[in-house]
């Protein structure tokens, strides 16, 4: 009797537990799907979905010249995302991101020219840029403010000068006939394919940045952005966090440089100019430091503006140096406008205006 009762009690408990578990699991899965649907149906989620669809479809309607600008816009947004993290959270100004862009480009080009799979070169480029930045950053990050900015600029100039003297990097002429990017027998030969690869990389970089900011180390970064002293007193390893963000921003630049090398199929030291390195900083500041979508918006504004000025500068009757002068003038005017009218950048300012407008609507608290 006792054994029977124990068996029945066990069976009853098991059955009840299993049934209860089944009933509780189903709403959880449904609730997860409903949560995703609710997020997509919000104005922000709908805007992201529409932006993604437009970004994916746009290459089908652009000509080769427009696709070139579209691809460069995406590559600059990738680099500027790293600059935005570095300046917005670690409080470090780097004028030498083009050096890590060059590291990624040379890494991908050299590996591909030595009959290694281009996809392997694409994967190795950000890793090499991360490693170089980690080594260089140990002494450089002891500096602060404009000292660090000029030190990173000096690193760019030294790297370009040294690369121009190395035979395995092609010397001053650079590397030519870089194989196209591809997976196995599938090769990306069209401009549309490189546009999709570039913007897929933009999405990947944005997701990585978002996950880092919203993670536990991201709280340390936010504390670091507020006050280094307060962050250090709270147990945040300030030096290590700065080094990791510096190396991560370099990895983003290396990824963009690798895509650029495959797209153009030739690179040389002259490509990696100081002007473009400064442009990355301008893009990050215009879009909004420490934001995820700011670099994309800033890249669109700055790249299209510079492209328009370059088109005007190439008209007959204008001096050859008009393009360079107009570009630097555009940087100065943009920064002045942003500092005076939108100190936090375009994206944070527009976001604040939208939230203020939504809060002032009838029925809203």
- The low-confidence runs, each spanning 5 or more residues with pLDDT under 50, are 1-29
The secondary-structure element order is HHHHHHEEHHHHHHHH
Q: What is the SS-derived class?
A: mainly alpha
How many strand segments?
A: 2
Arithmetic mean pLDDT: 83
User: C-alpha Rg, in Å?
Assistant: 25 Å
Number of helical segments? 14
Q: State the shape.
A: globular
| Cα end-to-end separation | 66 Å
Textual characterization of the structure:
The protein has 365 residues and is mainly alpha-helical. Helix content is 75%, strand content 1%. The protein has helices at residues 2-41, 43-57, 64-88, 97-113, 118-140, 145-163, 191-214, 216-226, 228-233, 238-264, 274-287, 294-313, 322-341, 346-359; strands at 182-183, 186-187. Residues 1-29 have low confidence and may be disordered.
Briefly say what this structure is:
With 365 residues, the chain is mostly helical. It has helices spanning 2-41, 43-57, 64-88, 97-113, 118-140, 145-163, 191-214, 216-226, 228-233, 238-264, 274-287, 294-313, 322-341, 346-359, and strands at 182-183, 186-187.
Features:
mainly alpha, two-stranded antiparallel ribbon, disordered N terminus, 2 strands, 365 residues, globular
Blueprint (SSEs and pairs):
Blueprint: H1 2-41, H2 43-57, H3 64-88, H4 97-113, H5 118-140, H6 145-163, E1 182-183, E2 186-187, H7 191-214, H8 216-226, H9 228-233, H10 238-264, H11 274-287, H12 294-313, H13 322-341, H14 346-359
Helix pairs in contact: 3-7, 3-10, 3-11, 3-12, 4-5, 4-6, 4-10, 5-10, 7-8, 7-10, 11-12, 11-13, 12-13
